[in-house]
């Protein structure tokens, strides 16, 4: 069995092999070749596992930007389309592709890889750690009255316009791009995704209505993509895009006041969002599904740690194991005035951890102390976990809702 890079001529074989690995059949693209998720594939970044002259496994990567704490934008490889034919599993094809891919990413000078895990037990052994979560929030409409605010919350000034997805693609692209630049954990949606209509709604051409919010000056600053049905009286919101809580509340009020609806499902609600607390009946909104979303893999620890922004000063010695590459390195992380330096050291460690655990805490959404309590990270003295919590905490919780 061998692993090799793909070319444009391998597209059909790559798509067919990946779908066969899942036991599914590919969707049919539109006449212009778009409208399906695989129309955004970058064939110069993909791999095929080949046995006896035919493809038996696939692994791909997209070229994204990831927003780090401090609103820093960095390149990130978005690993995708990983699969092995049922007839060739348990033969080392997946491990060989992962090793080939991660080695190639390092050779390209990339220091971060991300993915969405189909199964949570697969990717830790390759050094990935879950770094963001997302939740599905279901609100019963007859109980969805908002409470009168008692604090400093302000109603979103502006207006909402209802558009068809087919008529506002460029507007959605513009709003999303401004949002992802300010939201830690968010990924870019390259222009080719929008033009190819690749992915999930509202990128895909699936019919959707879009509630577009404009501020008092008429500038678009948020949207909610939604559809009605399945079941018939359920309104499902694909995504709500804004970094402004007041705008989010305005869009939520809009969909919750929709006629002929018994419940509203927000498919990607950021954990900890205040919407539930804004309702007069706290129980009107139920978390019906909470799951890991973005998994992070650090390929160059010093570059990754010095790339993100920091919000507290301090020093931490990290003893980082990377079993997949057979590496064990100790680093001194020194943070001053929002910037970090990270260099090799022989000082005694404050924390010992796997590179997958460092990926989990990297974006600031998972507290190191949580992983200490879980037995993943070893704290070498009583104050180490609290210090790590203080250092790694971001200015706002990371959230990713892009599907790839």
TrEMBL record:
InterPro entries found in the cross-reference section: Acetyltransf_17, Acetyltransferase_Eis, Acyl_CoA_acyltransferase, Eis_dom, GNAT_dom, NAcTrfase_Eis, SCP2_sterol-bd_dom_sf
Keywords: Acyltransferase, Transferase
Active site: 123, 404
UniProt GO MF annotations: aminoglycoside N-acetyltransferase activity
UniProt domain N-acetyltransferase: residue ranges: 1-152
Listed CDD domains: NAT_SF
Residues noted as binding acetyl-CoA in the record, renumbered to the chain: 82-84, 90-95, 118-119
Xref: HAMAP family: Eis
Assembly information from the UniProt record: Homohexamer; trimer of dimers.
Protein name per UniProt: GNAT family N-acetyltransferase
Protein's organism: Amycolatopsis iheyensis
